[in-house]
Design a protein that fits this description.
338 residues; 2 strands; magnesium; single chain; mainly alpha; Farnesyl Diphosphate Synthase; disordered N terminus
Length: 338
């Protein structure tokens, strides 16, 4: 039997994911316990809504990255538990806010929290999670780590606003897109990796290596996520296929397809871009145009380039099983595009 290169890469990636889950399991049990504890409140709706999102699933890659980075450097202080929980709270806060901004109906395969509790509650509970994230950081007494995550929170918000400003903007460039995903997605990966390294006792070179690794991993992750909006199935993605198109998001596949499309193809794309009621037929037409001009495959190629850069960032660190796992894990997230 002939096994495709994509299948081989996917198998390797899945193996890396299992190894990462096993290597971080003991620490992640502490993180998960802290997450559930800090999602509590005497205001009944707060834990109800927060836990609905937190317990909905997901591999918790970002906090796992924090834990893995701390273990990588071998001198973990225990602060990684607070850091990892804070990272997960920041992530979930952005999801709550994003679903309101994007008017999304689904999140992680279930109705978005705003569909059950409303927009106002979703925004306010998101604010609660952010507050708890920073309280957990303050409790460690490490102002430098607090500074990393506080700066990340600011950049993420800027990225979201910039993406909103560029929605349905037919003049958006690949540079604009890169600016958006660096800010709104890759910055939290970067911060998660760096504060983990700090908790593990890394020196400045080690922090820089993990900072670069996190950024490149986050970029690869978002590129693949944007491809899946046109290739994925709703159940696997945890959201509706085509949401990005209907929300008018100028992702790289859209920008590439618009640049190469003939006038008739461009008209088809523009007719569905930013239209909440765009049909599945229209979405299929847009995806066909993207495939015709290799926009999706070229986007995956860029994701692979970022994976190579992520691996290169780790090259100067001492050899260890955790370094190998982190080097391999990036391939899993690119393999989702196949």
């Amino acid at each position: 039997m002939v096994v495709s290169a994509a299948a081989t890469k996917e198998a390797a990636g899945l193996g890396a994911l299992d190894r990462l889950l096993a290597a971080t399991d003991a620490e992640m049990q502490k993180v998960n316990a802290l997450i559930l504890k800090r999602a509590d409140s005497h205001v009944e709706m707060v834990p109800e809504l927060a836990r609905y999102l937190i317990e909905a699933g997901g591999k918790r890659l970002r906090p796992m990255l924090t834990v893995a980075a701390a273990l990588l450097f071998g001198r973990a202080t225990g602060a990684q538990t607070n850091y990892a929980a804070a990272v997960e709270f920041m992530h979930n806060a952005t999801l709550l806010h994003d679903d309101v901004v994007d008017e999304s109906d689904m999140r992680r395969g279930r109705p978005a929290a705003r569909m059950i509790w409303g927009n106002q509650a979703s925004v306010l509970v998101g604010d609660f999670l952010l507050g708890q994230a920073f309280l957990m950081m303050v409790e460690t007494g490490k102002l430098d780590a607090l500074g990393v995550l506080a700066k990340a929170a600011t950049i993420i918000a800027e990225g979201e606003v910039f993406q909103l400003a560029k929605a349905r903007d037919l003049t958006a460039t690949t540079a604009d897109y890169d600016q958006v995903i660096r800010a709104k997605t890759a910055t939290l990966f970067q911060a998660a990796a760096e504060v983990g390294a700090m908790a593990g006792g890394a020196d400045e070179a080690g922090r820089a290596a993990m900072r670069d690794y996190g950024m490149e991993l986050g970029l690869a992750f978002q590129l693949v996520d944007d491809v899946l909006d046109y290739r994925g199935e709703s159940g696997a993605m945890g959201k509706n296929s085509g949401d990005d198109l209907r929300e008018g998001k100028m992702t790289l596949p859209v920008i590439m397809a618009l640049a190469d499309a003939n006038p008739a193809e461009r008209e088809i794309i523009v007719a569905s871009l930013g239209k909440p009621d765009a049909s599945e037929t229209a979405l299929a037409q847009v995806a066909a145009i993207m495939n015709r001009h290799n926009a999706l495959s070229r986007t995956v190629d860029q994701a692979h380039a970022h994976v190579r850069a992520a691996r290169a960032a780790l090259a100067g660190l001492p050899e260890s099983e955790m370094k190998t796992i982190l080097s391999d894990i990036a391939e899993f997230y690119v393999s989702r595009a196949y």
